[in-house]
C-alpha cells in the first residue's frame, strides 16, 4: 500500500473533499449504486459489506492505489508527521503482502484496493449525510476510521468494502495533542494484518 497526503479542507467545502479525497470510497449522496451487498456480521472489522456476486477467486494480483488520508478543518499536524504516518502504513502493508503480486496498472485478474484513513473526530451529522447512503453506517462522527474498498480493476465494479476504528491511533490535532507513534504503528500493523487474513481466506495467488 502506498499513501498520499491530503491537506486540510474548509468546512464550506465538506462535500467537495469527500468526493475528491475518497474517489472510490465516498462520493456525493446523489450517487446511485445498483449493486446488492450482504453485511458480513462475522467479520473481524466493525463494518463489512460484500457484493452478492463477488468472486475473489478470479483474482491473483493486487492493483495498488495510493492510500488517502483525510484530516479535518484546523488540523495542525506538521508535514513531516504526515509523511511519517504515510511511511508507517506503507511499511506495514508491504510487510504483510510481500508474497502477493502487486501491480500499478489495472488489468484482468487484478483487484483494485483503495485504503483511506479518515479523521472524523470533528465531523458533523451534515458531513456524514454527504456520504453515500450505503456507507453512512461506516462513517460515524467522532472516530478515526480505516476504510477499504475493493473493486474489479477493469470494470471498476465494487467487490467489498470495510471500515474499522477498533485500533485507533493517536494523531496530533488542533488542540495540541502530540502524535503517539507507537499507536500509529500498532494501528497500521493491525489493519494490515486483518487485510492479509482476508486475502489468505478469499484470494487466489
Keywords:
single chain; 205 residues; alpha/beta; Double Stranded RNA Binding Domain; eight-stranded mixed beta sheet
Can I get a quick summary?
With 205 residues, this protein is α/β, with parallel strands linked by helices. The chain is built from four helices and eight strands; from the N terminus they run αββββαββαββα. The chain has one domain: Double Stranded RNA Binding Domain (2-Layer Sandwich).
How does this model look, in words?
This protein is an alpha/beta fold. It has a single domain, classed as Double Stranded RNA Binding Domain, CATH 3.30.160. It has 4 helices and 8 strands, in the order αββββαββαββα. The chain has helices spanning 14-21, 79-96, 125-129, 181-202, and strands spanning 37-39, 47-51, 61-64, 68-70, 102-103, 110-119, 144-152, 158-164. Strands 1, 2, 3, 4, 5, 6, 7 and 8 form an 8-stranded mixed β-sheet that branches. A hairpin with a 5-residue loop joins β7 and β8. α2 (79-96) packs parallel to α4 (181-202). The protein starts with 13 loop residues before the first helix and ends with a helix. The model is unreliable at 1-32 (pLDDT under 50).
Count of the domains: 1
User: Please, how many helices?
Assistant: 4
| Overall average residue pLDDT | 74
Give the CATH class. Alpha Beta
Amino acid at each position: 500500500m502506498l499513501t498520499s497526503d491530503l491537506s486540510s479542507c474548509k468546512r464550506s467545502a465538506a462535500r467537495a473533499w469527500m468526493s475528491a479525497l475518497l474517489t472510490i470510497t465516498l462520493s456525493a449522496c446523489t450517487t446511485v449504486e445498483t449493486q446488492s451487498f450482504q453485511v458480513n456480521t462475522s467479520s473481524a472489522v466493525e463494518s463489512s459489506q460484500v457484493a452478492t456476486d463477488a468472486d475473489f477467486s478470479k483474482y491473483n494480483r493486487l492493483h495498488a492505489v495510493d492510500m488517502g488520508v483525510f484530516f479535518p478543518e484546523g488540523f495542525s499536524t506538521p508535514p513531516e508527521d504526515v509523511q511519517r504516518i504515510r511511511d508507517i502504513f506503507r511499511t506495514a502493508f508491504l510487510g504483510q503482502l510481500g508474497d502477493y503480486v502487486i501491480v500499478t496498472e489495472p488489468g484482468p485478474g487484478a483487484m483494485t484496493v483503495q485504503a483511506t484513513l479518515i479523521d472524523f473526530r470533528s465531523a458533523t451529522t451534515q458531513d456524514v449525510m454527504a456520504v453515500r447512503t450505503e456507507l453512512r453506517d461506516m462513517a460515524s462522527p467522532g472516530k478515526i476510521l480505516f476504510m477499504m474498498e475493493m473493486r474489479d480493476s477493469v470494470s471498476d465494479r465494487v467487490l467489498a468494502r470495510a471500515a474499522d476504528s477498533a485500533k485507533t491511533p493517536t494523531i496530533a490535532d488542533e488542540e495540541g495533542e502530540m502524535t503517539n507513534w507507537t499507536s500509529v504503528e500498532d494501528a497500521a500493523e493491525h489493519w494490515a494484518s486483518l487485510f492479509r487474513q482476508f486475502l489468505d481466506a478469499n484470494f487466489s495467488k
